[in-house]
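Reopening: structure tokens for the nickel (II) ion complex, inputs below.
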Amino acid sequence: MAVMPIIVAPDPRLKIKAKSIDKVDDAVRTLMDDMLDTMYSANGIGLAAPQVGDDRRVIVVDVARQDEDPAPMYMANPQIVDVGDDDRIHEEGCLSLPEHFAEVTRPDRVKIRYLDRDNKIREIEADELLSTCIQHEIDHLDGILFVDHVSALKRNMILRKLVKAKKLAQQPA
Ligand code: NI
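Re-run output (same inputs, fresh job):
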């Protein structure tokens, strides 16, 4: 179990198309566990492998509230196999775009097929926050950030601020 550094946008490593894995073995389980630690330590509800510099199609999610027991989900090769008719608008954030938020519209209900931590094929239906979160994380596996779903004006404003923040962080004290 280890906490890994999270890559902040803009960064080419966040724009890759991640590769499917053959099976969830011990190496993938270690990645999943480290990603979950990393996500919890950053108070996030989802994390995708490219955000920690890994190019495999792996995500972790936990949308349990603070007053609920943790409910971690580990998914390899997650795939949206069905989509409901209704939309849901949610103000999204991202550990790779710290302190920035924007409303994104996505399908409210999705059916997801994936390999779980034990390499079993699973299919679940998700709605509300879980649905939004899983779709956001699957996007990461295809190099898509939530800002890619908003207007160019808003996207460029956020990206410029992130570039400025990175430059400030690099300046000697
Ligand atoms: Ni994100």
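The two ends are 33 Å apart (CA to CA). The chain is about 30% helix and 25% strand. Marking as resolved unless the reporter disagrees.
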